[in-house]
Amino acid sequence: MLTIRNLKCWYGGIEALSGVTLSVGQGELVALIGANGSGKSTLLQAVCGLLPGWKGEISFEKVPLNKKKPQDIVAGGICMVPEGRLVFGPLSVLDNLKLGAYLRYRKRDHYGIKKDLDKIFSLFPILAQRSGQHAGTLSGGEQQMLSIGRALMARPKLLLLDEPSMGLAPLVARLIFDTLAELREDGLTILIVEQNARAALMIADRGYVLETGRMVLAGKAKELLADEEIKRAYLGKDYARFTEGRA
Amino acid sequence: MKPILRNILVYGAFIGVVAAYGLLEKSTYYLQLATFVGLNTLLAVGLNMLMGYAGQISLGHAAFYGLGAYVSGMLTVHLGWSPWATLPCALFAAGAVAYVVGLPTLRLTGYYLAMGTLGFGMIVNILFREFRRFTGGPSGLPGLPELTIGSINLSHGANALFLVWGCVIVAFFICERIVDSRMGRALRAIHYSERAAAAVGVNTASAKLAIFVFAAVIAALAGFLYAHMITFISPSTFNFLASVKLVAMVVIGGMASIWGSLLGASLLTLLPDFLHVFAEYEMIIYGLILMLVMIFFPEGLFKNLVKLYERAKNR
């Protein structure tokens, strides 16, 4: 569904990604893990069209995404939940969700939007309770739910998530991951970028490990979870239970 | 149903106040002062859409005000057109200039956008001054015709007041509709974070351009009304200081608040008039009052007054 070949990106003069290859198949949940500064977020931004000047090949459903504008990529069916959530603080929760459906309003799909709103409210009931509140007054976890809800309002075929567990209490992070697993069951294709390697690999089908701009490992999520090298570098030994919200 | 009812009440009261003032006030001076409040409100509400909602600062907004006035002024004085025939030309000219200027300028953000629009405003003002053959140069362009329909003169007294405030009410209505629409949400999203707005699929460049053109057209309308009311225009009305004053109206009235534009424009238009009694201390007191407003009403008059009212109600 999404194919990336030999992707190179630059931040200023620094090469952030030096030739990365990755693919996500229809209905898959793929996890991309790696430490700070390994280039994970850069990759997502390149896919979304937010980072101009990348070289290589990114194609979605066999259509190359070179030179495409962010709005065209969203219209094509890719939607991102950005790092740090980036909900629109001064706007109400409901307006945030409606913004997610921005491109669908142009097509006058009011009935479909209403139905999807109800779906998001049943997925995250807390958002329904707070629909009139300013998004900036929500807690971190609620903002993350809102950010995911906002992305889903665009009815994406592929959902990208950038560090969805960042700064969340373990229990809340777990709830978010469970929701992602549920969405996958419903047939959504998901690419998730995470530092919380264990939690991400637990729900993923396949995983990739990125290190300073290079893909160093790829494989089935179960195998990666068992890999000694990854255990040492990313999973930690004894603290895992405490830090990852998943016993 | 309830918000609709509230809207009818608010607009009804607004129209009632304007009508009562226009019918009861007999002094031409105060009628004209109130008309000026209306003109400034029109300018401020347009700029507020751009600055308050979309978060794009413009320090050259008076240029569009001037373009509206000069395009209409030159066509009527030199070519003898009817003022009404020049109205679409003035609006179109301002909109077209905004489009061409906005295309590169709106790629800038923050201070750089402020500098870009500042430069644009100054260039337009210099053109007004130097194209003497057409604009009359620094001494201005006299002899503009007044606005009439049949035998009714719309450039004097209560009629001018009704015309200008009629435009204000229509502009308020349109702006409120925009704010509540998909476009309004997109603008507020851009104000908060352009990247995040792009990530949900908003074409940020074209949304910013659209609201820039909209604000320019509203300003040109105000320029048109001004030109044919005063029947004389000169470059100094549309200079950099005029742009700054418009920004001050928006900030003092309240960013991202349509009714705040009314308060900001009223305060900055009426205050100098009330302060004349202080003679040489006038400007000092004027500055002091603006400072106090910003200290005690940092979110602008409208939002802070609403908060005060709600606090008093809950007590």
Q: What would you report as the Rg of chain B, rounded to the nearest angstrom?
A: 20 Å
Strand order of the largest sheet of chain B: 1-4
Helicity of chain B, as a percent range: over 70%
User: Mean pLDDT score of chain B, rounded?
Assistant: 93
Q: Indicate the proportion of strand residues of chain B.
A: under 5%
Number of helices of chain A: 12
Strand coverage percent of chain A: 25-35%
Structural domain count of chain A: 1
Instruction: Look up the CATH topology of chain A.
Output: Rossmann fold
Can you give the mean pLDDT of chain A?
A: 88
Structural account:
The complex is a heterodimer of chains A (247) and B (315). With 247 residues, chain A is of the alpha/beta class. Chain A is 41% helix and 25% strand. Chain A has helices at 40-48, 70-76, 93-100, 102-106, 110-123, 125-129, 140-152, 170-185, 197-203, 221-226, 228-235, 240-243, and strands at 2-11, 14-24, 29-33, 55-60, 63-64, 78-81, 158-162, 189-194, 206-211, 214-220. Chain A has a 6-stranded mixed beta sheet with strand order 6-7-8-3-9-10, sandwiched between helices. Chain A has a 4-stranded antiparallel beta sheet with strand order 2-1-4-5, with helices on one face. In chain A, a hairpin with a 2-residue loop joins strand 9 and strand 10. The model of chain A has no long low-confidence stretch (mean pLDDT 88). By secondary structure, chain B is mainly α. Chain B has one domain (2-242). Chain B has 14 helices and 4 strands. Chain B has a two-stranded antiparallel sheet. In chain B, strands 2-3 form a two-stranded antiparallel ribbon. In chain B, helix 2 (28-53) runs parallel beside helix 7. The radius of gyration of chain B is 20 Å and the shape is globular. The two termini of chain B are 29 Å apart. Chain A binds chain B through residues 48-50, 69-71, 74-75, 79-80, 82, 86-91, 95, 98-100, 102-103, 105-106, 150-151, 154, and chain B through 182, 185-186, 188-189, 191-193, 195-203, 256.
